[in-house]
UniProtKB/TrEMBL annotation:
Residue ranges of domain THUMP-like in the record: 347-417
Methyltransferase keyword on record: yes
Lineage: Bacteria, Bacillati, Actinomycetota, Actinomycetes, Streptosporangiales
Domain of life of the native organism: Bacteria
Organism, as annotated: Streptomonospora salina
UniProtKB keywords: Methyltransferase, Transferase
GO biological process, alphabetically ordered: methylation
Record-given protein name: SAM-dependent methyltransferase
Amino acid sequence: MSSGQTAPDPRSAFAALLTSAGSRVLAAAETAPADPLKAATVLRTESERALAESAGEDGAPGVAPADLAGAALTQARLRARARVKFGTRAERMFFTEPGLEQATRMSVADYRARRLAAALGAGARVADLGCGVGSDAIAAADAGLEVEAVDSDPLTVAVAAANAERLGLDGRMRVREGDAAEVDPGGYDAVFCDPARRTARGRVFDPDAYAPTWDTVMDLAARAPASCVKAAPGIPHERIPAGAAAEWISVDGDLKETALWQGLGDGPARRATLLRSDGSPPATLAAGPGGGPAPTGPPARYLYEPDNAVVRAHLVAEAAEPVEGRLLDPAIAYITSDRLVATPFCRAFEVHEAMPFSLKRLRSSLRRAGAGTVTIKKRGSAVDVDKLLRDLKPSGPESAVVVLTRVGDRPLCLVCSEVTASP
């Protein structure tokens, strides 16, 4: 930027995207050349034309062509990235960079919204405190709830409001600027809160550094008739309130979040819920009344790897029970069994060879198997996976899965292949 120039106002540039001229430039940005310089040239020319043709119209944007072009190009690229989380909805939505980073994947937001709607009933009033670009509020409104979405950032509020309008949900979703900590949670049937876990320096792992802080969020949740709080999947168990039901949620095996429920007849204190992108029904595993530890034993014919949601929820023993399994080591989440049983909570592997870890022995085993494609999994092992793959130098037409773990202080290596049990 040259001396004397002022930085473009992002709110003005975003407001311009909502006009007919902005829509035209945004449409051009969707098909702009991949090369940034070429894209900028094409879009600036289109912006100049669109702004000139809209001059004098009500709501005509008062922005420079370069600013409108930049905003459109940024938005188009954010939409392309957002398809992973939002599917086809992304094509009609608007985003900010930090808003997209923290936004809930829609399959998770939809699942939570259905739980809220089932417990509260259609038309219940829900406050979304710290709504971001609106993914959770959108899901709640789509489920039939009346949502008031609050965020402290003016640009984010404008983006969330535009998303509600573009998705046809503005009749059930009101967005306003405000401080979440100052909202009276007793004025709603339930509150939802997703505290910000990112700063300019990156992801925040300490709950006390969330915004609002963890204590503030927990106070809001406790004063509401019912609540759901979204927390990081790695939140320490000791930071979970005694009265909350904690639910670890994964999508296709990728652990996404911990949802803390209060006041909804929440059931077990710990549960793991697995969502699938293929549209299959959610699978939930809950802590039982006994909750004793799983037995331990040596490697058997099959090895089960529990989903990360199961592991974080401390439900490995519950996952072992239906497969008649036992743990190789009481502190490590690998289950072994003589039976192959279909279970949504674990991936299954057939064990072809079990041995104390040795590079020489493992290389010989893979050579005998003709394994040129090797996947290495580890829990409780300090082995450098990348270095091990280089040292193994696998070759051949077959594939194998190598599991590195330990029993006590003894390193253990299992050579396996993934299998699928019939339901």
